[in-house]
Amino acid sequence: MWIVLAFFSAFFAGITAILAKCGIKQTDSTVATAIRTIVVLLFSCIMVLIVGSQDTISSISMKTWAFLVLSGCSTGASWLCYFRALQIGDINKVVPIDKSSTTLTILLAFMILGESITWIKGLAVLLITVGTYLMIQKKDMKKTGESKRNSWLIYAIFSAVFASLTAILGKIGIEGVESNLGTAIRTAVVLIMAWIVVFITKKQDRIKKVPQKDLVYICLSGLATGASWICYYSALQAGQASAVVPIDKLSILITIAFSYFVFKEKLSAKALIGLVLIVAGTLAMI
Which residues have a Cβ under 8 Å from the Cβ of 263 and sit 6 or more positions away? Predict the structure, then answer.
């Protein structure tokens, strides 16, 4: 069952990137993140009420609370970096780097959670790493330090690092906690973090200036994220992190397909080979 949930997580995650990209055309990415997190939190709380797990919150240990909060902070940092990268870069370049967090997650799962690394997983990590490199055009890497617009690469890398930490901390934090409740708690942490950043950067005045069309897309991306999270953490609770995370990363196929039809972003021959390697490496770990 956890495999099915992981695939649904990938589907909704793929849609999230497209909807978010549509919602930050004229809206600051930090403000958009703060707004969409409200939607995700509402979605998560509704799921908690549906399954009736709100009564178990008093039984959560201090250790679990600590890891849930840390996981939420990592998620918040990953989101802020990811949506900033999406705003200034192309989807078919940003997403592959973000999805490369799979490699780091597997290494951390081995060191922290004691999950084994077989030769197949080792080969898969190599394929994903090489594929990600191929999808980053050399001219983009050379210009990163020359143009502010190409700073998407730095934001995308940080997004991947924090995403991998999120998976590990989330795996530890949801032990003994109903997954929907754990997701709601983490989302509350992300919400607080996102709005703190908005006020620190003095962008609260931009909230009133968000175009209605952007707001609709931002809210829809929040709903897609909520659905993805529910599926992801339910799968993570039942399956191994080193297996659930790779399946979730298959959302790259959905995202890149939509980026072609919606934003007319095309892949070069080298980037297409890179995408094939990433998918092959991902499937090898399932």
Answer: 21, 90, 91
Task: Estimate the crossing angle of helix 179-200 against helix 62-88, to 10 degrees.
Answer: 50
Compute the distance between CA of residue 224 and CA of residue 40 in angstroms, rounded to an integer: 8
| 278 token code pair | 């990433």
pLDDT tens profile 187-222: 999 999 999 999 999 999 999 889 999 999 999 999
Separation between Cα atoms, residue 73 and residue 191, nearest integer Å: 10
Residue 2, burial from CB neighbour count under 10 angstroms (0-12, 13-18, 19+): middle
pLDDT 10s digits, 113-169: 787 778 888 888 888 888 888 887 554 445 444 455 568 889 999 999 998 888 788
Answer yes or no: are the C-beta atoms of 70 and 234 closer than 8 Å.
no
Q: What is the pTM of this model?
A: 0.77
Please tell me the predicted confidence (pLDDT) of residue 53. Answer: 87
How far is CA 6 from its chain centroid?
A: 13
